[in-house]
Amino acid sequence: TLISDSAVLGFGADKDTTLTHTDGTGLTLNSTNKLCFNDASQFIQGASATVLDIAATDEIELTATLIEVVGRLEVTGGVIFNEASADVDFRVESNGNANMLVVNGGGDRVGVGADPDMGVGLHIKSGDCGAGGPNAGGDELVVEGSGNTGISIMSGSSSNGTIFFGDSGNDAIGSIDYDHADNDFNITAEGTIMVNLSGGFLTINNAG
What we know:
By secondary structure, the chain is an all-beta fold. It has strands spanning about 10, 15-20, 25-30, 35, 40-45, 50-55, 90, 100-105, 110, 120-125, 140-145, 160-165, 175-180, 185-190. Helix content is about 0%, strand content about 30%.
């Protein structure tokens, strides 16, 4: 037992590795030496005065119920969530929305603005429209709101905003396009362009 508040334990013939007791703080391993495990390929090391390395040849497992990162998190090797395919959600909160981005593990959906409950892909939701769900022929992207709801394509003042329709033979076999340079609206198709109205009217207004 070392009773000094600044006791130093030296290891090795030349005591090149030391463990120093700092009163009220803990134990300090000297310099940039490592605390090694197994074959020394797994270790904890103070690589510099500001950097701490935790190294393993395969996997580092943290079993706490909560892991809190204070500061910026940088990942250079890629991130995989829920690789075991469990029913686990991934959620990102913003300043005013607890469900700003949600990956619903059980529903296989991604939500923006709310926990997704419609469609089979991406559900952007600002409010509940009251419908049971979207048409199965167009449920890969669902935009839902409780009031006026829409999608905006914002383009440069002399550029085009376009929605393309493609298949295995042609990636632009049809399109809906707005040319901001000339303020022209164009609908293109390889075949016939049809307008189907059920009890309504089609009005084309040319004020020029």
